[in-house]
Amino acid sequence: ALATALPQLQGLSHLTLQGVLSDGITAPQLQAIGEGLSRLQQLLELRLQASPPTFGMPVKCLAYMPTTLTLLQLDRLFVKRAVTQETAPRLEQLEILRRLYINTVHSFHPEMLWSMPMLQHLQLEDAPIRGPTAAAEFMFVLSDLTQLQRLHLSNVLDEHSMLDVAQPYAALTASSQLTYLFLNRLALPQNTTSRIFPADRPCHELVEVGMDRCNFKRKSDMEHLVRCCPNMRRLHVLHDPGASGGMDPEVRGQL
Fold this sequence. Notes:
The protein is α/β, with parallel strands linked by helices. Helices cover 19% and strands 23% of the residues.
């Protein structure tokens, strides 16, 4: 029914497909849905949410995405596959994309972000960027996203992609328009707070910050953050009690 309806909805601007794409879908059904998507040349927002998580077949529909999109959400479509130029080549053609949300994938290759210079919201959850080379490229591409307003990263950099403290962590706050930064379960080296928030570049627009399980636990970390984000209104800090070394009591007392 969906494949039949989509070609008749060419004026559609917002579309959410939840539970429609599953590993049980047949190749002809998938092709029909994909061809229907390709005709939606006024589509601005597309949300694809697999339930339960999928392992392969449905990602092929991404080849049909219209390039008019300003918002794209991919939820649990790539559980056993990496999001790369090869598996999702159409992503590189979304040059006017403003908001990108990717959740629960095998891994994420950051090179495709180079083609999204107008990105304003970027949210990656359970989307590992594997290896120090890919992690370094991610930092470099972030520094080029000058329109970025909201950056949400959860379980993206693990111990295998941990960068040296001298790497360009300042890219996380490079956008002068950044108002929201949430970092969760990132295997950042200790003492990186001063590099994420350079002292000579205050984040005046940043009003909401989350630092969960990110080696943010010393009194000096808190003091530095307060100095660099003078207009901060919301702060969330969660320390992993299982991590080596506890949170400085003086930091806990300030929360």
